[in-house]
UniProtKB/TrEMBL annotation, chains A, B:
This is LacI family transcriptional regulator. Keywords: DNA-binding, Transcription, Transcription regulation. Pfam families: LacI, Peripla_BP_3. The keyword Transcription regulation applies. Residues 5-59 form the HTH lacI-type domain. The keyword Transcription applies. PROSITE patterns: HTH_LACI_1 (PS00356), HTH_LACI_2 (PS50932).
Amino acid sequence: MAGRVRIQDVAAAAGVSVATVSNALNRPERVNAGTAARIQRIARELDYVPHHGAVDLRHGRRSAIALVIPDVTNSFYARITRGAADAAYGHGFSLVLCDSNDDAERERDFFTMLADQRAAGAVVVPRGADRQRLDGLRRRGIPLVLTDRAVPVQEGCSVAVDDVAGGRLAVEHLLAGGARRILVVNGDRAIRQCADRWQGARQAVREHRGAAVRQVSVPQMDVACGAAAVRELAELPDAVFCTNDFLAVGVVQALLARGVRVPGDITVAGFGDLDVATVSAVPLTTVRQPVEELGRAGVGLLLDEVEAVDDHTHEARQFPPRLVVRESAPRQEVLV
Amino acid sequence: MAGRVRIQDVAAAAGVSVATVSNALNRPERVNAGTAARIQRIARELDYVPHHGAVDLRHGRRSAIALVIPDVTNSFYARITRGAADAAYGHGFSLVLCDSNDDAERERDFFTMLADQRAAGAVVVPRGADRQRLDGLRRRGIPLVLTDRAVPVQEGCSVAVDDVAGGRLAVEHLLAGGARRILVVNGDRAIRQCADRWQGARQAVREHRGAAVRQVSVPQMDVACGAAAVRELAELPDAVFCTNDFLAVGVVQALLARGVRVPGDITVAGFGDLDVATVSAVPLTTVRQPVEELGRAGVGLLLDEVEAVDDHTHEARQFPPRLVVRESAPRQEVLV
DNA sequence: CAGTGCGTCTTAAACGTTTTAGAAAGCCGT
DNA sequence: ACGGCTTTCTAAAACGTTTAAGACGCACTG
């Protein structure tokens, strides 16, 4: 009684042709009601499940989509993955995960895997993907949705978080708390996200008379670098905006170590709302990005393009982040 | 020049039959060297990539495996995923990610997706999966490797971390540091991992004359509960072993808040080596589990069963954790 | 009673491959 | 000149489905 049961087995058991079985299961109205019921019963009894690959092949359709990311272990990508998985499940697609392990060559391999029609399309958070390769896939009829990278909208859909708004949000909050001299602890400004968050910070400051901002850039966005950035700072600001929560945790630790009270003397805001934000000695006020939403929307746009290939118009969707207020920079109750 | 190029197109362009193209690409020795070269060149020029689904169908083979997990967002599962992805890539398989979002019904859906031959097998970290359903899949010829759950080895392969050894490791370290009265802050003892880690702790203590251990159980394994567990403790121990890093972070915070020095007065060890371990006010000494290895080995065993279906013997593989010494419980330099 | 139409089922083609069996052609030795 | 062998290619079946087209019987109509 073992082994896979094919549509043929059902047909044999019911004493009809395979076509009739197929019809009974997919379009019962074309089959005598009694027969249809009988076939359905038999199929259920035999525990028949259609071979999905064959169905797809027949239909010239593909019911899997791919998600290409640099590293699931990074919670940002994990959250994208989670959102994408949700959406894929919701649409009845299966999701093949392509984790490039931050390796450009592996990423390339995944792209040729896409070309072999395994997937109907892909949501990609690019690592090294060059435009040429992406175009190659598109020409093959494999839609791509890019994430977290600026893309000319005529080339395809994209989704991203509005990092400028995020930086602005954080700094506006610090200013509203009474801070005037703001320090921004940033990562490599060549990274778009870093540049954008800094730009948002500047916008906020520019609109606030009497406020001043300055920036210090560190090589790695981790706790140690955050701590280093303020450990030997000659002149302390009123508030610090870190473009990443790890940096913020380091900053808070270093400030406390210097005997500076947070938020008493200096307020601190982070970015990302990572796990560490709540675990920090002083729970971090930070900017929460709708990352799951990024994944979900990416898959949504992709499937829209896949299914409504006729009248699909590309779209560059941007999501607003929101502020999560915790202790490191509390809601202002400062009555001046 | 757009659209998918099929093997037929290559055949037409080369003026040969599709069979010859297939041979030229897959078994060139059966084809005249010159022709083979010409066909390969043409295939390359046309950018031909075989339709993987069709190939699989023809071969009665499947080149995808599934990974069923409760939630990628949880770093434990993310690390399993990463290991599984690595191994799948290494073997030329694609990995379809089934994130059940901690939902038993969704998990069931994924299992019927498996039955439809989309995947050659699955590595599953079960949430609610009952034995009956798993057996159903196995009877269909879909091999399953279970993770992180004790399974009778005759039913299939499994991989797990040796949690008993982990608990033992941590507590032995605390004892070696000079501690005698050990407190274990544990989660729900109905959870296998919690029970095992506690058992390991007890073993270590039992083998150490003069040592005593006691346990307190908290409802959630998070920072708040960890803090609560020691905040109002009447009698402080020499050392605390927390069966999870979040608990440990909470414990450290609460101890520091009480004016207890860590590791000066009390040493603390955690479990998991999560991100938070390094970020904690006092970097945590903790037990690192080879989680990626779990995923990698899971896929390895699965593919062994898939490919060498003849002489595969089931295996329950267990991985030893190792201790990561940081500041909360430093290497003993205590010269008694 | 021939013709028409309907309801029900089946035959066969198709999806894009691989592979088996065999055909065509060239060469060899007798 | 012929049978047999080798080399090189092709036709066709197969994988498990779906579906367009057609066959068969039956009731109805004129």
